Backbone:
């Protein structure tokens, strides 16, 4: 192999810049992501109740999108915060509505606990999908993070080769 071909091959295999993928992009603190997700979901719930007098499929779809976006936005060391976020987010939203507008979640004559349980049951599909997507995205990000570290380590010349 000629010197020029060897130099070319070395540049392609070791000098190629590594661009971060979608799975490696999240860099926001977990508390910030959780707070933003809660605020967005509360605003959407308030809008849904104001327009339709109850939570609709629109709320469910936004819930799934917010959970997925939170899993993509959080930094790796805060994966746990986002991993437990969907059920807490749904319970908090339904709980606030159970105190403020019971008729939007369940029968207006129900007590708080019955309204909370009914609301969670009515939106269990969205909770399941949002939670499953959140965990899947976090798992994919963890795998991508592990693989990118291996790729970067393989791309660096070893100390023995660097001395020659």
Residues:
């Amino acid at each position: 192999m000629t010197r020029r071909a060897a130099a070319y091959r070395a540049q392609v295999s070791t000098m190629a810049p590594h661009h971060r993928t979608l799975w490696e992009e999240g860099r926001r603190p977990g508390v910030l992501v959780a707070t933003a997700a809660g605020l967005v979901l509360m605003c959407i719930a308030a809008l849904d109740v104001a327009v339709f007098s109850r939570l609709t499929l629109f709320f469910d779809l936004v819930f799934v999108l917010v959970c997925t976006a939170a899993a993509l936005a959080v930094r790796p060391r805060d994966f746990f915060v986002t991993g437990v976020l969907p059920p807490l987010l749904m319970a908090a939203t339904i709980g606030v509505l159970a105190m403020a507008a019971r008729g939007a979640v369940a029968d207006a004559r129900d007590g708080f606990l019955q309204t909370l349980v009914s609301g969670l049951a009515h939106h269990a599909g969205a909770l399941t999908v949002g939670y499953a997507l959140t965990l899947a995205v976090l798992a994919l990000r963890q795998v991508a993070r592990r693989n990118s570290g291996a790729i970067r380590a393989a791309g660096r010349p070893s100390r023995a080769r660097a001395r020659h």
